[in-house]
Specification:
Elements: H1 3-12, E1 17-19, E2 26-30, H2 34-44, E3 53-55, H3 71-80, E4 85-90, H4 97-100, E5 105-109, H5 114-123, E6 127-128, H6 143-150, E7 156-157, E8 170-173, E9 180-183, H7 189-199, E10 228-231, H8 233-237, E11 245-250, E12 258-262, H9 266-281, E13 287-291, H10 300-310
Parallel strand pairs: 1-7, 3-5, 4-8, 10-13, 11-12, 11-13
Antiparallel strand pairs: 1-2, 2-6, 3-6, 4-5, 8-9
Length: about 300
Amino acid sequence: MSLVANAVAALRRGELVGMPTETVYGLAADARNPAAIARIFALKGRPAEHPVIVHLSDAEHMRAWAKDIPEHAWQLAKQFWPGPMTLILQKLPGVLDQITGGQDSVGLRVPNHPLALQLLAEFDDGLAAPSANRFGHISPTTAQHVRDEFGTQLELILDGGAAQIGIESSIIDARTPELRILRPGAITAAQIAHLRDTQFTGTQTASALSTPRVSGALKSHYAPRTRTALLSRAEIEAWTGAGAALVLSVATLPALFEGIALSADPAEYASTLYAALRALDARGAAQILIERPPQSAAWAAIWDRILRACA
């Protein structure tokens, strides 16, 4: 039996499986199984009201989870799926409250990773798959990161290599044509605006819907265990805090500091951000100092993650 077939069998038994995606690794469970979903929350230490995203093999499977799907949601799916985009839609009555945090909306995504898509196709239904880490900690971007988080508590982890994108999906409230971005990611506001302006039909109206709770929206999230601060390069160079500090910088490390320098290209920076934070966190320093990256739309998702990591 192949590893994917083993994973499908485990999921059907109600077990949890470490699943690769192009964003981060997920802790996957049968999204129809209340006991399996409860195991996700228990293992992660995740608050019960915090919703999880349902992963699908293709856009057509949205019909099994959402109702009143607007045309613009299908257009978004056609443009960006498989890919790092989660759509918030009105849930069907049978969707578990554990999935939605008791809300009337559900988050759906089709990941762009061959192993994840094979697993989803063979399972032939939705998988709840929040990031495979303790709640609030740095998300995993390799199978080893998942092993480091859970050790022997998770029996089966599908190893799909390092995540290509490296930060979580953009979450878009697609219930109305306003298309509110609730969590920034690799699919940008500019891409969404361009698609809306060129392809959407109908009248854009102000929404009376409340903003739903979504994954990764808490003030403190994606955080190392080491105390972490966000500083300018000049502030880092002048830093005189007590204890040893490690630096996560852009392009080059400041003189006299140890740490990791990430790419000045935002996509490359994002793809290695969590791995770098995990590596620095493991070194037992008194402090991690993150250099402020450029402030532009291309860096919006990165700013979101590092601000929460330092909160």
